[in-house]
Design a protein that fits this description.
single chain, 229 residues, mainly alpha, two-stranded antiparallel sheet, 60% helix
């Protein structure tokens, strides 16, 4: 009974919004009043989306580092790992201060991306990794801009700044591989995914489950602490 109640409450604390879909029926609704400013449903949803993105992209970076057939692909993998680890630390810090429950797994859709890349190798892996990362990060830019321009919470604004910088860095990294299929990117970025909500929603953490932590590389120079502003 207790576990069921925890699961239900947890599922109410974060959104169904992943990719380019709209999740909250009232994104401007204020859900809390922390010291850093009013927190809206859109702000809360954003933190969860950042966490879910980190959780699928970090292991993809690890795969690129191990399976990439070119130096540029392996370099992109290093940048994904470093950027996502630093961003996830900032995300977990913000969530802790704002009382937001975070998932420990990405959405089923994102898990599908990861599974597909797991099964691939050689040039197919290189091209699919670069194109998928470019597409998902390109889609995320719209969400970042919307949150950055509307939030009244200084912690969310700082997180959005860091997310924006990281996403642009990751886009540049995979574009440098020369393997991005821009025809596919454009088609996917301009099409709303026709997927059920449950496929776009990261599962809530099990009751008592420790929070997953993405370990930064030993030589990482990326800061996990955004400047509040």
């Amino acid at each position: 009974m207790g576990g069921a109640v925890s699961l239900t409450l947890g599922s109410l604390l974060y959104p169904a919004m992943l990719g380019v879909q709209k999740v909250s029926s009232a994104p401007s609704r204020v859900v809390a009043h922390p010291a850093t400013g009013p927190l809206t449903a859109a702000d809360r949803d954003f933190v969860v989306k950042v966490r879910a993105a980190d959780l699928w992209e970090y292991p993809v970076g690890e795969k690129a580092l191990k399976k990439g057939t070119t130096k540029a692909v392996r370099s992109a993998g290093q940048q994904l790992i470093a950027g996502d680890a630093a961003l996830d630390a900032a995300c977990r810090n913000a969530a802790g201060q704002l009382g937001i429950t975070l998932p420990n797994q990405p959405s089923p859709q994102q898990q599908g991306f990861e599974s597909r890349l797991n099964a691939e190798s050689g040039k197919q892996f290189d091209t699919d990794m670069a194109t998928t990362v470019r597409t998902t990060n390109g889609q995320f830019l719209t969400t970042i801009a919307a949150v950055r321009t509307t939030t009244r919470n200084t912690l969310i604004r700082a997180l959005a700044n860091q997310v924006n910088n990281t996403v642009l860095d990751h886009i540049s990294a995979v574009e440098k591989t020369g393997l991005v299929d821009f025809t596919q990117v454009l088609a996917q970025e301009t099409t709303t995914p026709n997927l059920p909500t449950q496929d776009l929603t990261p599962p809530p953490p099990a009751a008592g489950q420790p929070q997953a932590v993405l370990t930064p590389p030993a030589n990482s120079t990326v800061s996990p602490n955004p400047t509040v502003g």
